[in-house]
Each structure stands twice: as C-alpha cells, then as structure tokens.
Design goal:
Blueprint: E1 9-10, E2 19-22, E3 31-34, E4 38-42, E5 50-52, E6 55-57, E7 61-62, E8 69-78, E9 85-92, E10 98-100, E11 103-104, E12 108-113, E13 119-129, E14 132-143, E15 160-162, E16 165-167, E17 171-172, E18 180-181, E19 189-196, E20 202-203, E21 207-208, E22 213-214, E23 216-217, E24 227-235, E25 241-251, E26 257-259, E27 270-271, E28 276-283, E29 290-296, E30 302-306, E31 315-319, E32 325-334, E33 340-350
Parallel strand pairs: 6-14, 7-14, 16-25, 17-25, 27-33
Antiparallel strand pairs: 1-2, 2-3, 4-8, 5-6, 8-12, 9-11, 9-13, 10-12, 13-14, 15-16, 18-22, 19-21, 19-24, 20-23, 24-25, 26-28, 28-31, 29-32, 30-31, 32-33
C-alpha cells in the first residue's frame, strides 16, 4: 500500500517579517527561519571611526599637503538583499574637495579627495538597494596643518603696528585711496567691518582674492578726529578666522612742507667728535613719508634717521661728526600721495 507523501506547508508573512518553512518530504516535520532582507549602514571603529550617539565620526582630514583623504562608509546586507547598493548625501554637505562613492557591490563605499577648507562638516548618507534603505549621520573634521592664514599689517606698503592696531597709510580728501589688507597665504577669503567705522566714502569688499581686500572709494569728509579706527573680521582661504584692528587718518590735502623748530635754513652747528642731533618736522601731505638727501652731502659721520611710526620728530639728522667744515645739502620730503618738496640747508661742523 502506498504511503501518502507529506506536503510542505508554507506560511505567508507580511513584508519584513521572518518566513518559516514547516517540514517537507517524507521525513519528520522541521522548521527553518529565513531573516528578512535588509541593508544597514554601519560605523566600524577599525579605521578610526567612532560612533558618538547617533553620529558616525569619520577620520579627520587636513587642508595642506599631503592632504589625500580616504574613509569608508560601511554597509551590511542580510537576507535576500541585492548585489548593488547605491549611496547619496541627503542632508548637510561633505567638506569641500571630498566626494562620496555612488555605488558598491561590496561592503561599503569610500569618501575620498583632498579637503580644501577647515571646519566640522555634518552630513547624512542614504544607502539604497531596490526597495531597501538605510540612513546614518556622519561627521568629518578638517584641520589646518601649518601656519594659519592671517591678516598681515606690514605686508602692505606704508603700514605699521602700534599696540596691536595696524596703522594704514593716510587717506587724502578727494583722492582715491589705494590701501589694501593682505593675508599671509595671499589667497582669497571673506571679511566685514565688525566694530568702528571706515572714513566716509571708503568701503571694503565682502570677498577678496590673492591681492587682499582692496579699499574702494574716495574720502569725502574728515571728522572732528581725523583718525578712524575699525576692526575687521572674516574667514581665510582654508576656513581660518581672520581678525585685526586698523586705523586710517584722513588728511585735508594741505601743501607738503619741511618745518624746523626755528626759522631759517641754517642749522645749529656741531663739533667733531661730539654727538649731534637735529630734528626735522613736516606739515601737510599724507603719510607715510620718506626723506632723502638729493643734492650736496651730509657731514661725514651723520646720517638721516627716519622713524617708522609717529614720534615727537618726523626725521632726525644724527651721529658723531668726524670732519670739520661747512656743508650744504638739499633735503627732499615725499608723501604717500606722490607729492614732493625740497629745501636746502647749511650745517657747520667745528673742529
């Protein structure tokens, strides 16, 4: 007599639930459980990754060479997940210079490239396999390796530092101002005036290039105090903060002149072997100024000393004379606006 065969009993399940097959064939009944198909973005720690709450911290990068970057966005597949998984950034953004691989047939994709701007970047990745999806938040920190970008004072002609403030060349009423604010990296960035004010008629661009931030405009007024103080804040080419205090003095476009403490062109005499000093002053024009001897000769042992910053005197003839005689020479004074004036002097050195 033929023994009836045992039929397989299949249990239909809702999507995502485990499927169970109950016994088949002539043997005893058995149950086999199959996991539902799924994909899961993971944050392994083997490659320097770390899970902070619900955010996966990928390894940090740097902006300066060698700055090649590579990190893994891992995905695990289970059940009947397909062979190919695609990836996309659905929120936030990667650091500039980095890209995310679009798809993989393996266990993940890579973030690669050369980061160009410092900062902390948060973004969300979505992995897709047919109708299966998984999302995870990530974070990458990019740092600057080497000297940071800075606003430089003395790199601009005619500028100097006093008590942390950068004193820029004077501006002249009614004349275009050629000043600029350079940076140490000589690259682009953004900035804004966050305290104080520029002289009326002058402005600074919100973004600048390799030449630095170049002033635009012509001073139109001089206040009760002719010196304007302001502070600039911005971001350098690699994301570094920029900050510097500045001063600009607006001149009234008065004639340039050399002035002595006493009238006349004959200077107080000196003596061979004795220390000598004679101050010169100026009026009008626009600083910074330059002094020079353009005719004749100074007494041997004396030199012109020009001060880099404002002092009680604008220039000084100083030294120890080494030869007696009467010396006639012509001094020239030039200002930042290109104006010049000259004056002849006579100095006697006694034996």
């Amino acid at each position: 007599m033929r023994r009836p065969s045992r039929a397989a009993l299949v249990c239909a399940t809702a999507a995502g639930a485990a499927a169970t097959l109950l016994g088949a064939g002539a043997g005893p009944a058995s149950a086999t459980t199959y996991p539902p198909p799924r994909i899961t973005l993971q944050c392994p720690t083997a490659d320097g990754e770390a899970l902070h709450g619900t955010v996966c911290g990928l390894p940090s990068g740097m902006t300066t060479a060698p700055n090649s970057y590579a990190a893994t966005v891992a995905v695990a597949k289970a059940g009947a997940a397909g062979a190919t998984v695609t990836f996309a950034v659905t929120a936030g953004s990667l650091p500039p210079g980095l890209t995310l691989g679009a798809q993989t047939t393996g266990s993940g994709t890579a973030v690669t490239g050369n980061p160009t701007k410092a900062g902390t970047y948060d973004f969300t990745v979505k992995a897709t396999d047919g109708g299966l999806t998984s999302t995870l938040a990530y974070q990458i920190t990019v740092t600057v390796q080497g000297p940071p970008d800075q606003l430089q004072c003395t790199a601009a002609a005619g500028s100097f530092l006093i008590d942390g403030a950068c004193v820029l060349p004077d501006a002249v009423l009614g004349q275009a101002y050629p000043g600029r604010l350079p940076t140490s990296h000589q690259a682009g960035g953004t900035l804004a005036v966050v305290a104080g004010s520029l002289p009326p008629g002058l402005s600074l661009p919100a973004a600048f290039g390799s030449a630095g931030a170049v002033f635009d405009g012509t001073p139109t007024a001089q206040g009760i105090e002719p010196t304007y103080s302001f502070t600039v804040q911005g971001t350098g080419d690699q994301g570094q903060p920029l900050y510097q205090a500045y001063q600009i003095t607006v001149d009234q476009n008065l004639p340039l002149a050399i002035v002595l403490p006493s009238s006349g062109s004959t200077l107080t005499s000196g003596t061979v072997g004795q220390t000598f000093g004679q101050n010169f002053f100026l009026s009008g024009g626009a600083g910074p100024y330059s002094w020079s001897v353009v005719a004749g000769a100074l007494p041997p042992g004396l030199t012109l000393r020009t001060f880099a910053a404002p002092t009680d005197a604008d220039d000084e003839l100083a030294g120890t004379p080494t030869a007696a005689g009467t010396y006639t020479f012509t001094m020239q004074l030039a200002d930042y606006a290109g104006r010049q004036t000259t004056q002849q002097f006579t100095l006697s050195i006694e034996p």
